[in-house]
Design a protein that fits this description.
about 475 residues; alpha+beta; 9-stranded mixed beta sheet; two-stranded antiparallel sheet; 12 helices; about 15% strand
């Protein structure tokens, strides 16, 4: 009997071990497959009109042909290196490439309560949210006119090279699975710009901001931290996150950050498409550590990042909102839009004519250890802008603004109120400004529901698109 029990136990152990090996093999295969799949995404030529201005987060750029009689009216990103296209093309390239680009990564430490080591295929909205937050931090520490000194030296993404590399890694991964070894991919470190980053204060800020978004459990605003905070809403690693949920996760991440550099910033998330001015002003005047009386609040001591989850239509975007989106992206204090196509998030930063310009997180790159003083910066900046017709935009999105002070907020609210005035075709503005606090309008709800207003609504039996309850 004991002998039979021993054989049964051994058989169960072998079966369990075999199942674990199969699971590991599946995980490695999917990781390598995602890397190869998403390495194709960015190598598409983006055409820009030479006759229309290009807007990027409040900055306006014009392209023009050297020969005014030239019949060519458009150019691609490949043409940017040629003398035929003049104007301030280099200024546009420098500005776009200086924005922080955060994409899918693989081979980082397992995410909280999971064995997941890559966010490929599901983390795009988190990455878009990180990019928006990174832009706010660039404004806060460096200002809108800052550009990265190495921006124009970035090489264009090469699909053939990247895909061939991904294919080799897929084969190596499968071979190593049978050998019991986990493949480790080493990326060559680029030394250019490291010395300058240490010597120049703004480059130090630049590098510090990127490090806050590292893919480690200790990173203040990294994907590990965001996934951990998302568990409050029932989200887990591998789940898809909506733009409204990400707005609240970002607020919590900044609120709970321990780095002294992030103590001077608050994040305010609008309630039901309404910005309550007294709440924003209160966020500006939040208590900070000072050498004075700890009981006395310091007026206007913090900057505020204002995030506004909105829905610009029903199942599809309402074309009447196109001009509104253009107006928003034409403002320098706008930090972009977390949006995209259905189930595919992008970070919108600008537009030309009837097309949005965006940064694409759907590109799988290897883990970079940002804890080292000279970690390579090139993979955190994108040399290739992409465009998408407005009509393809998912109506669910989160709009962001940066307010440095109470005076700044008063100017922002006044200017936005004019942009928000509905046209004759629009029935409602995308969002509104109200005086007073949210509590003054009897927004009585359980604390959890206030924290996550677009996740649970007991009045609705079914789910709504984009984690929104349509009113």
């Amino acid at each position: 009997m004991c002998c039979d029990g021993f054989y049964l136990s051994a058989a169960d152990e072998m079966e369990t071990k075999g199942t674990d090996e199969v699971d590991k093999l599946k995980s490695r295969f999917m990781s390598a497959w995602h890397n190869m799949k998403y390495s194709w995404v960015l190598k598409t030529k983006t055409s820009f009109s030479r006759n229309s201005p290009v807007f990027v987060l409040g900055k306006c750029y014009h392209f023009k042909a050297d020969d005014e009689e030239s019949p060519t009216e458009s150019c691609t990103t490949d043409d940017f290196d040629h003398d035929a296209v003049m104007g301030n093309v280099d200024d546009f390239r420098r500005d776009f490439a200086s924005r922080v680009w955060l994409t899918y990564r693989e081979e980082f430490a397992a995410l909280p309560d999971s064995a997941v080591t890559s966010d490929c295929g599901w983390g795009c909205t988190l990455r878009a949210g990180q990019m928006m937050l990174a832009q706010a931090l660039l404004l806060h520490f460096l200002g809108r006119d800052w550009t990265w000194s190495e921006a124009l030296t970035l090489e264009a993404l090469d699909t053939e090279t990247r895909t061939s590399s991904a294919a080799r890694r897929l084969v190596a991964s499968l071979e190593a699975s049978f050998q019991g070894d986990r493949p480790r991919v080493s990326e060559p470190l680029c030394q250019g710009g490291a010395e300058e980053a240490h010597s120049h204060l703004k480059e130090v800020y630049h590098r510090t901001i990127i490090s806050w978004f590292g893919d480690t459990s200790s990173a203040q605003l990294g994907v590990h931290r965001l996934v951990h905070l998302g568990m409050t809403s029932g989200k887990r690693a591998g789940d898809w996150y909506g733009p409204a949920v990400v707005a609240h996760i970002l607020r919590k991440a900044v609120e709970e950050a321990t780095d002294p550099g992030l103590k001077g910033i608050n994040v305010y998330v609008a309630q039901d498409c309404t910005v309550y001015s007294a709440d924003v002003i209160e966020s500006h005047s939040a208590q900070v550590d000072t050498c004075g009386d700890p009981e006395e609040p310091v007026a206007d001591s913090r900057a505020v990042i204002i995030l506004i989850p909105v829905r610009l239509g029903g199942e599809k975007i309402n074309p009447d909102y196109f001009n509104f989106v253009k107006g928003i992206l034409s403002l320098e204090y706008c930090i972009g839009i977390i949006g995209g196509k259905p189930k595919q998030a992008y970070y919108f930063v600008g537009f030309q004519d009837d097309s949005l310009i965006y940064m694409d997180p759907h590109y799988c790159q290897s883990f970079v250890d940002v804890s080292t003083s000279d970690f390579p910066l090139q993979s955190f900046h994108c040399p290739s802008p992409k465009k998408m017709p407005f009509i393809k935009m998912d109506p669910s999105c989160t709009i962001g603004f940066y307010s440095k002070s109470v005076q700044d907020y008063e100017r922002i609210s006044n200017e936005l109120s004019k942009v928000l005035q509905p046209s004759l075709k629009e029935k409602y503005p995308a969002f509104t400004f109200m005086k007073g606090h949210g509590r003054d309008y009897e927004l009585s709800a359980p604390v959890e529901k206030k924290e996550w207003p677009f996740i649970r609504d007991k009045r609705k039996t079914g789910t709504t698109a984009g984690d929104f309850v349509l009113l």
